[in-house]
Description:
3 copies of one chain form a homotrimer.
Chain A: H1 16-35, E1 44-49, H2 54-66, E2 70-74, H3 88-95, E3 101-106, H4 111-118, E4 123-128, H5 134-148, E5 155-159, H6 166-175, E6 181-185, H7 194-201, E7 205-209, H8 212-215, E8 221-224, H9 235-241, H10 249-254, E9 260-262, H11 283-301
Amino acid sequence: MKFHGRDIISIEDFSREEITYILNTSKTMEAVASKGSDMLKGKILATLFFEPSTRTRLSFEAAMLKLGGSVIGFAEAEIASVKKGENLADTVRTVENYADVIALRHPLDGAAKLAAELAKVPIVNGGSGSEEHPTQALIDLYTVQKEKGKIDGLKVALVGDLRYGRTVHSLAYALSLYDIELHLISPETLRMRREVLRAIQNKIAVTEDSNLEKVIPKIDVLYVTRIQKERFPDLAEYAKVKGTYKIDLKTVAAAKKDLTILHPLPRVDEIAPEVDSTPQARYFQQVYNGVVVRMALLALVLGAVR
Amino acid sequence: MKFHGRDIISIEDFSREEITYILNTSKTMEAVASKGSDMLKGKILATLFFEPSTRTRLSFEAAMLKLGGSVIGFAEAEIASVKKGENLADTVRTVENYADVIALRHPLDGAAKLAAELAKVPIVNGGSGSEEHPTQALIDLYTVQKEKGKIDGLKVALVGDLRYGRTVHSLAYALSLYDIELHLISPETLRMRREVLRAIQNKIAVTEDSNLEKVIPKIDVLYVTRIQKERFPDLAEYAKVKGTYKIDLKTVAAAKKDLTILHPLPRVDEIAPEVDSTPQARYFQQVYNGVVVRMALLALVLGAVR
Amino acid sequence: MKFHGRDIISIEDFSREEITYILNTSKTMEAVASKGSDMLKGKILATLFFEPSTRTRLSFEAAMLKLGGSVIGFAEAEIASVKKGENLADTVRTVENYADVIALRHPLDGAAKLAAELAKVPIVNGGSGSEEHPTQALIDLYTVQKEKGKIDGLKVALVGDLRYGRTVHSLAYALSLYDIELHLISPETLRMRREVLRAIQNKIAVTEDSNLEKVIPKIDVLYVTRIQKERFPDLAEYAKVKGTYKIDLKTVAAAKKDLTILHPLPRVDEIAPEVDSTPQARYFQQVYNGVVVRMALLALVLGAVR
């Protein structure tokens, strides 16, 4: 397995064996995270966020700093050279001269892939268009593994916007590498994209439904997503479906005692605050896991862990 | 006295003994500031500024870096997840997974307090609403102590906007722990808030007036504040009072030779530039003191100094 | 030669001997850049960008980090205290308390000079108004020296906006210290400023023309600039001249085999992407050189290299 110099663009680029290796490396990073390290001393991460995402950006930055590296970057396209009409290709070919690794977030599908083709340094896709968010999928797998001690054999429900939410596309692909039962719960208009569905149906058992109540008693992991206003081409469509699913204490009561509730965050009102203090709520632990998984990825692509 | 793990929310949470300890620790930080240190190596400060304040943010960041730590954060709410509808509670419960301490600036009263109740890591209030700015009050005390060799026995005038300016609220409380004579000079509409006034009147001698000329000859410390346009609910009110007090060379000439002029900055035109080169003007030294006081606070709440 | 504590404001402040020293120091920084260094450990660079320039800002930041220092700052005036009406003088007298060196970018002519007069710490001009961009000129000289093994004896063409582009003003002055033949190619309305022209005409051979084809076969270095929309007082004027010169494979074919094409970047469409993969295109190497030249400048003004 070779990670040194590799780009992290799509979860589909990784075999189950490679994912296992990343998850195991992430586990070793928990100790490093609490002590600090000089593993990446002298290395620079550039966070190029053409679309704001405080959470993802700060997570990458914390990961780099905890490994002893440093960070440069920008937090939104408005303050970048794109204002002057520069294209992504030139930005990447410029910034690779400043940094040893680039974490890229971009509103357009394919942006991370294009960047990876051009750049001499590794590109880590921090979310591009509505297609891919591979590091989030790895964080989700890591969290499931940590909470349940395994991934195989679980029943998982993905709930909410399965059409525009890039997180669930990457996660569905990732889960299809395991022996799981997958339940896709969404309004009719926000069904999982057909190309994703087709790709995973060959590999695992998948059901689609609008009704969460039906599946809630039998699942082990409930993965909730925000219905993202900013991804809707038509706001009238957004108004119709927002607030469709709201996880509250009644949902929790109807589920298995050891249900694990995850959410990539930020949330708006899909999960009631009353749920936060239940043992089932693991979405803030998921945030912590985000740092160690990104530490693992940065250490791997920069060759500090082999 | 226990500072390790403690939040710095309101100046009212600190006894005079504790403040003395902070001021003494700040003094030891002057040597550390000039040499640099690894005291907080491996620690991360998150600066969450939901309201822009370059000065305060850079001061916190410089303090952290001079102690060998590192910094992540954002400089205005526009680029933060709040755009996606996230609430402060979730932001705090997320960022505490990235950082060892959080400096928070927020436009709403009570924001820092709420954050402190939720967070596992220490919260340092970098200014919240129009109520509190505890680190600025500590910087002001440190500066007075350094300039005058003492705080007890002094005559201090606070001038300008005493109603909306959070700095003067925290400072008035802090000064009331000492044996001082306090003169509050402001337009009628910008009088010190009644609840602050009542709280300090029990402890120290306080006068209120609109006329600065009357008190200028007898005071030791003149604390000038900006009339902050952004805090006025009504711009017509702002227009009426802006420029009411303007400190110039005539003001200086009418005062004691060893008057100390302070200002939390930024200023607009409350102090004429001609005053800057007088020995009385100490507001840029006050800026330097801001770094060492914040170094002390970060080192204390992170347990590096005990 | 004394660089410790010195401001880098205008290329005109430097003798040819001093420039040679900076270029030689830059060369030694190439090894430092790839290994990393603790040369500026404990030192802080403040990047005060009152005008956005991702490229220049990140280049300065990478330079500082590669020397082991750290960075604070802001990326645009919108989020700085200027919003509160603060003037540049107060910002500088504040930030000098936070940082050991300041890199300043400002839309107004003379801003860097004013800052340098006020500040106790060295100011490095990262571009001010339409007049000066001294670090870019040093990078350009360094790149020519590296590509050609010499500067004396070359034929150089500056193409595009020679009136509003600050880069070419600084570069023309710098080149006039060498024994070169300079060709200024621009539309009539974007001719090189008369004061710059007069200053360099005394020292070197200069021609002015609107026609690039005529000079292309004889030149050694082709320096292309963007026609900067944001510098035009009148957008109708901009519309008339944009796209006047477009360097493509035909241009390259008409030139000497060993032509060196440079561009300060970002570009819009002055150089066709097809040119990027020719050996003549050296503008991305120029970006890399930017980091080592800025490392040299930071190390010199902070006294780490003498």
